Amino acid sequence: NEIKVFAPATIANLNCGFDLLGLCLDGIGDEMIFRKSSEKGLQITKISGANLPYEVENNVAGVAALALLNEVDIDFGIEMEIHKKLKLGSGIGSSSASAAGAVFGINELLGKPFTKKELVNFAMKGEVVASGSEHADNVAPCLLGGFTLVTGYNPLEVIRIDAPKDLFAVVLHPHIEVKTSDSRAVLKPEVSLKNAITQTGNLGGFVAGLYTSDYDLISRSLKDVLVEPYRKHLIPGFDKVKNAALENGALGSGISGAGPSIFALCKQKENAQKVAIAMEKAFSDTKISYDVHISEI
Ligand code: HSE
């Protein structure tokens, strides 16, 4: 038998929650197929949509899958097909979709021995291949859906937070590649106490806003003083696009994950459509091609 998996795109960080907050997007993601085989071990039998290694140990999906398979004893092999629709280095969790899709699909094939939260742990191991560090802010929303908050990494603890009604995400994806490892290399390992307080207050405010459907609080909290100042130069037109989103009524806007995608959160579909048009117009000055996606949360 065969298992087909859809692995959705995600927005990590959401301004105030670097490496902690994530959001699952709707209708945009990779496809993966899994089969049992008589030949033991894990094999990647097909890759489309991206130039990725077939060697399991060098492949994000392969490494995540092996982390899971090391914990089980099975007398058959597994074949995995990876059909990438999400561009690598896009900032909407392309590598995480591969890692999360791999562990989700294999878990289904094995009759679900692991919980979704356990799968997040395995998926994170694959993330290291792409970014050089273990973080769960893309793999967690990809596996759990909705908003997710990592409350600790040692041991990993993740909670899922239901979104308030009428929330929409707009993502503008410039067609340039920003490697997560490069985007992490520009960050400063130390932050000031003042900025840490501002960022922590905003993360608390954002989470409180989600739980109470307080859109004004969500909006005031969607700020990033720790990461955006260092990363925004990697993204052509960033300030213009963000300002266009805010001027047109978005609740907040910022870098999606490690970039180059730029996201905006909006209340109601009509506003998301208006914001998407304004972001496109602002970005078109760069002459770089792009695509835009609106997602209901
Ligand atoms: N939190 C991660 C980062 C997400 O911003 O580097 C991208 O993998």
Number of helices: 10
Intertermini distance: 32 Å
Bound compounds: L-homoserine
Structural class determined from secondary elements: alpha+beta
Summary keywords:
single chain, alpha+beta, four-stranded antiparallel beta sheet, 10 helices, 10 strands, 37% helix
Overview of the molecule:
It is a single chain. The model has no long low-confidence stretch (mean pLDDT about 95). The protein is α+β, with helices and mostly antiparallel strands. The longest helix has 20 residues. The strands form two sheets. Strands 1, 2, 3, 4, 5 and 6 form a six-stranded mixed β-sheet that branches. A four-stranded antiparallel β-sheet has the order 8-9-7-10, with helices on both faces. A hairpin with a 2-residue loop joins strand 5 and strand 6. The two termini are about 30 Å apart. The site of L-homoserine has 13 residues, from helix 5.
Q: How do you describe this structure in short?
A:
It catalyses: L-homoserine + ATP = O-phospho-L-homoserine + ADP + H(+). With 297 residues, this protein is α+β, with helices and mostly antiparallel strands.
Please describe the topology of this protein:
Layout: E1 2-12, E2 21-37, E3 41-48, H1 60-69, E4 77-83, H2 94-109, H3 116-131, H4 139-144, E5 147-153, E6 156-161, E7 167-174, H5 180-185, H6 193-212, H7 215-221, H8 228-231, H9 238-247, E8 252-255, E9 262-267, H10 269-284, E10 290-296
Parallel strand pairs: 3-4
Antiparallel strand pairs: 1-2, 2-4, 2-5, 5-6, 7-9, 7-10, 8-9
